[in-house]
Write a structure and sequence with these properties.
Length: 323
Amino acid sequence: MTTDELALDLRELHKSFRTPAGTVRAVDGLDLAVRPGEVVAFLGPNGAGKTTTIDLVLGLATPDSGTVRVLGHEPSDAIAHGRVSAVMQTGGLLKDLTVRETLELTASFYGTPWAVGPALERAGLADAAGRRVGSCSGGQQQRLRFALALLPDPDLLILDEPTTGMDVAGRRDFWNAIRADAAQGRTILFATHYLEEADAYADRIVLLSHGKVVADGTAAQVRAVASGRVVSAVLDAPATDDELAALPGVDHVERRGDRVQLHTRTSDELARLLLTTTGAHDLEITSLGLEQAFLTLTSDDAAPVAPPAPATDRSASTAGSLR
């Protein structure tokens, strides 16, 4: 895949801000490549650089150095042609208009009046079309922002905390609609504090800390690289904790009744060793939670994660790999 075929191509991005306390590096050498049709979760603690990166992609800020390409173009060009839409947390709504009037007004700017009805349906707002925006709940207003973003039929949809204010059923319906969009080729990049949403709905998780990408992969890969896995088994022959700890790849040993739990970063190799040399049975391999991985990788004293092996295709080296 060439650079021009990528939905997002961010290279060596740097962005700093001057504050009374000194210079803050919001984005510090960030690289990211996203393929068309991917659903990518953008995670990180407050101050990690998520919002600044989104601002750079949307052309709301200019990088100090580095390049931003959106669908093969400069951000301003991609946005001017209606190929990029964003759903932000707040703002952008006139509370005295009805939901339908808001959509009709915005559709007139794009010349897409026929898109109003489908947008209402896909956002789950058909029953609230005549309601004034100011009387809508927070979740309904967020659905309206989603409907507005659909009007130009964008190729790239950027979501900043998109389900804030929605109830459980609303969040589920929203993400079902997002997945349906992605299945049709639309690229989704979303920032969220709901880790379970990232785990359930994202193809990839990109984890930021201090303006850098510290992990990039599936939820399972991020959990594994951050916290390792637990290999649990019942042993036919007794073994001491010291003997088990001496096995290759074992970091920590625990016992739960007749089962041993071995914490490791090389679970496949350890499982083969147990099954072939110790008479282990009822073996299970489990990953620790995404929340624990998040905390581990974004802590101030987190150890650096080794980068992936070099690849000739830039998109293949970043999409779905671990940094």
